[in-house]
Amino acid sequence: MAEGIEKNRKDPGPYACQYTPKDKKGDFYDDYCNWQRIPEYQEFLFNSPAAKIVGQLTQSRRIRLFHEHILVKEPGTSEKTPWHHDQPYYCVDGEQVGSIWLPLDPVPREHGLEFISGSHIWGKMFMPKKFLTHEEYDYKPKSFDPIPDIETNRDQYEILSWDLEPGDCIVFHFKTLHAGAGNLQRSNRRRAFSSRWLGDDTVFAERPGKTSPPFPELTFKQGDSMIHSLFPICWENH
């Protein structure tokens, strides 16, 4: 996997994004939808227990790959990932969904992710935010609820985080609110490989603007099944 991320970094895809300005210390970048051209990604996505784990947690009969996403924060990176949840960014609706966040480096909790316990069952969809500016997406106003001011009111939420080692992972729902700290460690990188998975009840969702990933190849309509070569079946419960 580490080799795959280095290949990806040297040969970025069309959706790669650099968040740290060149004149600032550190380096936060991400990229997604490259699994078709990076064998190390394919090996993990198709041959690891990842899809099975999501299938069992969501009680699905089969699991499709949605996409992969690398997020790397080099030592000394101050940029934070804002509070958000993923489903409003995506062109999918459903409850049998899951993300797996897999670190390739030791991640002390103060440099990792935080999650709000139970936020996936609040029955709300929050306006997505841009990672670069932390501004709201260019969706139609009031399409989704504004994200509450979590940082000012942290004592009102059950916020979870963990110290992680390579081989650990966090599995969470697309609607779970989460945020990411910077990586202010002096020498340790923070490389993470995220994989996103679709279970039985997942359908295509039209959003009020460009989604992330955009998947321009799709011609689906609201409520269509996600049957497409872009989203291969990676696990079935026989």
Features:
25% strand, 11% helix, alpha+beta, 238 residues, single chain, seven-stranded antiparallel beta sheet, Jelly Rolls, 13 strands, globular
Layout of secondary structure:
Layout: H1 2-10, E1 17-18, E2 28-32, H2 39-47, H3 50-58, E3 62-73, E4 81-84, E5 92-93, E6 97-103, E7 113-116, E8 159-160, E9 170-172, E10 178-180, E11 190-198, E12 203-204, E13 233-236
Antiparallel strand pairs: 1-2, 2-3, 3-11, 3-13, 4-10, 5-12, 6-9, 6-11, 7-8, 7-10
Averaged pLDDT: 97
Oligomeric state as shown = single chain
Helical residue percent band? 10-25%
Instruction: Please state the structural category.
Output: alpha+beta
Q: Give the amount of beta strand, in percent.
A: 15-25%
- The termini sit apart by 28 Å
Residue windows where pLDDT falls under 50 for at least 5 positions = none
Rg on CA atoms, Å: 17 Å
User: What best-fitting shape do the alpha-carbon axes yield?
Assistant: globular
* Biggest pleated sheet: 7 strands, antiparallel
- How many helix segments? 3
Order of helices and strands: HEEHHEEEEEEEEEEE
CATH architecture: Sandwich
CATH superfamily: q2cbj1_9rhob like domain
Q: Per CATH, what is the topology?
A: Jelly Rolls
CATH class: Mainly Beta
Number of distinct beta strands: 13
Overall domain count: 1
